C-alpha cells in the first residue's frame, strides 16, 4: 500500500492514461527562494489524488503550477499530452472560498465564463443544458434564481463545484475546498465530490489537511514535505467504498499518514 517515491516508476501497462503529468518541477519566489524542487506527479483519468503536507510546504503553489496559473522555473506540465502554458479549458478550479459573483444569481455564476473565447465553442442551448445539469448534480436544482447572499456556506460551495463541473473538466483542481465548512456539511460535500466526479468521469487533484477527508475521498494520497518541498511518500488507497464501512483499515492508514506527516514536518 505504501511506496516510497524514490523507487522506479511502476510499469505503465494496464493503467489509465494520464490527464496531468508534471515532471521535474521546481518553483521559486523572488526573495523567498526555492519553494519546491524536482517534483513529478501524474494524475490519471478518473483518478482522485489527495496532496497533503505541512502548512507552507508548497502544496497550493504546486497546484497553481500544475493548473497552469504559475510558470515553473524548471520542469514541464503536460495536460492530455500537450505542454501546458496557461490553464487548460478542460480543467477547473475550486478553492476554500467559493468566490461567487454577488451580482449574478446561481445559474449566472455557474455559467459565468463558459462562452469566453478560450472555452470550446458550444451553442447557447447546450451551455444552458450544461449549467442545468451541473446545478442538478450538486443538488441545487430549483435554486437557480438565488443570489450568493441567499446561499449558506455549504450551498455556496456546491455552487462553486457546479461552476467547475459545467466546464466538463477532465481534471478538477481543488485547494482545501471544504475546510471552511462545518463537519456535517464537509462530510456531505466529500461524498458529493466522489459521487459527481465518478459520474462525470473527472479526475481530481485535491489539496487537503484533513487526513480523514483524504482517506475517504482519494484513490491515492501523496505527501509533500521538506524545504524546499518534495514529494516524499505516497499511498494507494485500496479500501473499498464506502470506506466508512472499513474503520480498521481507515484507522491503520490514518496512523501511517500521521506518522509520515510528523516526520516530514520535522
Ligand atoms: N506570492 C508569494 N510571494 C512570496 N512567497 C510566497 C507567495 N506565495 C507563497 N509563498 C511562500 O511559498 C511557500 C509555500 O506556500 P504555499 O501557499 O504553496 O504553501 P501550502 O503548502 O499551500 O500551505 P498551507 O497548507 O498553509 O495552505 C510559503 O513559504 C509561502 O510563504
Ligand atoms: Mg495552501
Describe this structure in words.
The protein is an alpha/beta fold and 266 residues long. The chain folds into two domains: 2-88 and 171-264, P-loop containing nucleotide triphosphate hydrolases (Rossmann fold); 100-169, no CATH class. The chain contains seven helices and eleven strands. The protein has helices spanning 59-66, 106-111, 124-137, 153-165, 183-199, 211-217, 247-264; strands at residues 2-3, 18-29, 33-44, 48-53, 74-79, 82-83, 91-94, 171-175, 203-207, 220-225, 230-236. The strands form two sheets. A seven-stranded mixed beta sheet has the order 1-11-10-4-9-8-7, with helices on both faces. The protein has a four-stranded antiparallel beta sheet with strand order 3-2-5-6, with helices on one face. Helix 3 packs across helix 4 (153-165), helix 4 runs parallel beside helix 5 and helix 6 crosses helix 7 (247-264). It is globular. It starts with a strand and ends with a helix. Magnesium ion is lined by residues 59-60, 175.
Which structural traits does this protein have?
266 residues; alpha/beta; 2 domains; binds magnesium ion
Q: What are the SSEs and their pairings?
A:
Layout: E1 2-3, E2 18-29, E3 33-44, E4 48-53, H1 59-66, E5 74-79, E6 82-83, E7 91-94, H2 106-111, H3 124-137, H4 153-165, E8 171-175, H5 183-199, E9 203-207, H6 211-217, E10 220-225, E11 230-236, H7 247-264
Parallel strand pairs: 4-9, 4-10, 7-8, 8-9
Antiparallel strand pairs: 1-11, 2-3, 2-5, 5-6, 10-11
The protein binds adenosine-5'-triphosphate (ATP) and magnesium ion.
Amino acid at each position: 500500500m505504501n511506496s516510497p517515491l524514490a523507487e522506479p516508476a511502476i510499469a505503465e501497462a494496464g493503467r489509465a492514461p494520464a490527464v496531468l503529468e508534471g515532471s521535474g518541477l521546481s518553483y521559486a519566489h523572488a526573495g523567498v527562494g526555492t519553494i519546491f524542487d524536482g517534483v513529478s506527479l501524474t494524475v490519471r483519468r478518473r483518478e482522485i489524488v489527495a496532496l497533503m503536507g505541512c502548512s507552507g510546504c508548497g502544496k497550493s503553489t504546486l497546484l497553481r503550477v500544475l493548473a497552469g496559473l504559475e510558470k515553473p522555473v524548471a520542469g514541464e506540465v503536460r495536460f492530455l499530452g500537450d505542454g501546458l502554458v496557461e490553464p487548460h479549458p478542460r480543467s477547473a478550479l475550486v478553492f476554500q472560498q467559493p468566490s461567487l459573483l454577488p451580482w449574478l444569481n446561481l445559474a449566472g455564476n455557474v455559467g459565468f465564463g463558459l462562452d469566453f473565447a478560450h472555452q470550446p465553442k458550444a451553442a447557447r442551448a447546450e451551455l444552458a443544458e450544461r449549467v442545468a445539469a451541473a446545478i442538478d448534480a450538486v443538488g441545487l436544482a430549483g435554486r437557480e434564481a438565488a443570489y450568493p447572499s441567499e446561499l449558506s456556506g455549504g450551498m455556496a460551495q456546491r455552487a462553486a463545484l457546479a461552476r467547475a463541473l459545467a466546464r466538463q473538466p477532465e481534471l478538477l483542481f481543488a485547494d482545501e475546498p471544504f475546510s471552511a465548512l462545518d463537519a456535517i456539511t464537509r462530510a456531505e460535500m466529500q461524498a458529493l465530490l466522489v459521487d459527481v466526479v465518478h459520474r462525470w468521469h473527472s479526475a481530481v487533484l485535491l489539496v487537503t489537511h484533513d487526513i480523514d477527508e483524504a482517506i475517504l475521498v482519494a484513490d491515492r494520497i501523496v505527501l509533500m514535505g521538506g524545504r524546499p518541498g518534495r514529494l516524499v511518500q505516497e499511498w494507494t488507497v485500496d479500501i473499498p467504498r464506502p470506506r466508512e464501512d472499513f474503520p480498521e483499515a481507515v484507522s491503520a492508514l490514518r496512523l501511517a499518514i500521521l506518522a509520515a506527516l510528523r516526520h516530514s514536518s520535522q
